């Protein structure tokens, strides 16, 4: 984990609104279906340098309430996608390497990495979450980075 400062960046994607309680119930979970739709409808050209992002923002009551999730990429603008900004500011960067490049392994790696994020903020008063725009960044098929906005 390391502290970094990012410049603003625009990405393009599709959004849903959810909360952690709903995400724990497969019948009400929205993040998985959002990613499935994104994967079906958005032609990401990884070979041309396009990358994928998962953004979390518009938090109500921190981690306890609703928040928006956008599956996005930094490729060309498509009429079915909305523009979302990754805000400039301070972030903590957490990284992990998935053992394999398949969707299930990547999803499990992201969940494990977010578990590390939550544990870190429960025990580390030197950093305070800003609850602005947090995001996952998929550098390649197995390298995953999570950026958490901090005050």
CATH fold naming: Multidrug-efflux Transporter 1 Regulator Bmrr, Chain A
Number of domains: 1
Number of strands: 8
- What order do the strands of the largest sheet run in, or round the barrel if closed? 1-6-8-7-3-4-2-5
Q: What is the N-to-C order of secondary-structure elements (H for helix, E for strand)? A: EEHHEEEEHEE
Would you tell me the overall average pLDDT?
94
N-to-C terminal Cα separation, in Å?
Answer: 16 Å
CATH architecture: Alpha-Beta Barrel
What is the number of helical segments per DSSP (H or I, 4+ residues)?
3
- Kindly state the percentage of residues in helix: 10-25%
- The SS-based structural class is alpha+beta
Q: Spans with pLDDT under 50 lasting ≥5 residues?
A: none
Task: Write down the overall geometry.
Answer: globular
CATH domain class: Alpha Beta
Main sheet characteristics: 8 strands, antiparallel
Q: Into which percentage range does the β-strand content fall?
A: 35-45%
Oligomer: single chain
Please explain how this structure is put together.
It is a single chain. This protein is 24% helix and 36% strand. The protein is of the alpha+beta class and 151 residues long. It has a single domain, classed as Alpha-Beta Barrel (Multidrug-efflux Transporter 1 Regulator Bmrr, Chain A), CATH 3.20.80.10. Strands 1-6-8-7-3-4-2-5 form an eight-stranded antiparallel β-sheet. Strand 7 and strand 8 form a beta hairpin. The radius of gyration is 15 Å and the shape is globular. It starts with a strand and ends with a strand. The relative contact order is 0.23.
